[in-house]
Specification:
Layout (H helix, E strand, L loop, with lengths): L7 E2 L18 E6 L14 H8 L6 E2 L4 E2 L5 E7 L6 H17 L3 E6 L5 H11 L4 E5 L19 H9 L4 E4 L6 H10 L1 E3 L3 H12 L3 E7 L21 H6 L1 H4 L3 E8 L10 H17 L1
Parallel strand pairs: 2-5, 2-6, 6-11, 7-8, 7-10, 8-9, 10-11
Antiparallel strand pairs: 1-5, 3-4
């Protein structure tokens, strides 16, 4: 699978911490998606996957929060998809195909972005396998625009696009505190936008999600720039890093069938704190999926 159709760039990348060497036996697959073709403020998130991998050697394999080690898990880092630079439509189709292949082999995809638009083709693939899918969206921005400067397929409209696939009431949004008035009006009618603390918000919907297949999409800018400055569109007033890590206490109780972590931009992350935090979040994601 990973050596043919997907043409992933594994040889040029340092695998994520403690990644196994056997794709066939892996329960979860890490896939880098270095795409930032629709960046509206600062480009550079296509370098996020490599940065997260590189700094992962600085974190512990053991999770204090889960009382597990990465060495207890079975996962594979497939490297990065090779995408046609600047070609949005072709890139989205390659992402969809890649995720479909991973799902067809009954593995859990964990994607590293890249811009948030990558979630759209992932949900296209996920919906085919999991018709009752629910999406948990952690972000500073609502991402519910119809278009941005005439572009329908954009990181600013990714949740509007996924809503067209999933329908009303199946997108749960946490940490949102930025967007156009029209986006919040749309959310009030069509999504589950839950204001305030993300741990409390997740706790309030845990029971209704308990038996559902759940996909998690984390835009690193859900965090305040004090915690995660390395992102393309930072928004003040966000969540703390401890709050987001703590959210995995609830996520661990759900049926997580995939996750993406997007919008890490190392060029604006001189201390590497954002990439380091993303590496910790990926470790915690592996704890609840692999």
């Amino acid at each position: 699978m990973h050596d043919s159709l997907l043409t992933m760039d594994r040889q040029k990348r340092t695998p994520f911490l403690a990644s196994g060497e056997d794709y066939a036996s892996a329960k979860a697959v890490i896939l880098g998606v270095p795409m930032d073709w629709t960046a509206s403020f600062r480009p550079g998130s296509r370098f996020g996957p490599a940065s997260i991998r590189e700094v992962s050697e600085a974190i512990e394999e053991y999770s204090f929060y889960r009382d597990k080690s990465l060495f207890d898990l079975d996962y594979y880092d497939a490297g990065d998809l090779i995408l046609p630079f600047g070609n949005v439509e072709a890139s989205l189709e390659l992402i969809r195909q890649a995720v479909t292949l991973i799902l067809d082999e009954d593995k859990t995809p964990l994607l590293l972005g890249g811009e948030h638009l990558i979630t759209y083709p992932v949900i296209q693939a996920m919906q085919q396998k999991y018709p009752d899918l629910r999406l948990l969206h952690f972000d500073a921005h609502a991402d519910l625009r119809e278009a941005y400067i005439g572009q329908i397929a954009s990181h600013t409209s990714v949740m509007r696009l996924t809503h067209a696939i999933l329908g009303d009431g199946r997108i749960y949004q946490f940490g949102i505190h930025s967007g156009a008035r029209e986006e919040f009006s749309f959310a009030a009618e069509h999504t589950r936008l839950i204001r305030g603390d993300i741990f409390e918000g997740l706790s309030s919907v845990r029971a209704e999600l308990a038996e559902r297949p759940v996909y998690v999409s984390i835009d690193i800018d859900v965090l305040d720039p004090a915690h995660a400055p390395g992102t393309g569109t930072p928004e003040c007033g966000g969540q703390t890093s401890s709050a987001l890590i703590g959210a995995f206490d609830i996520l661990a109780q759900l049926r997580i069938i995939g996750l993406d972590l997007v919008e890490v931009m190392p060029a604006n992350d001189f201390s590497s704190r954002t990439s380091l935090l993303a590496a910790v979040l990926l470790r915690e994601a592996l704890m609840v999926t692999a």
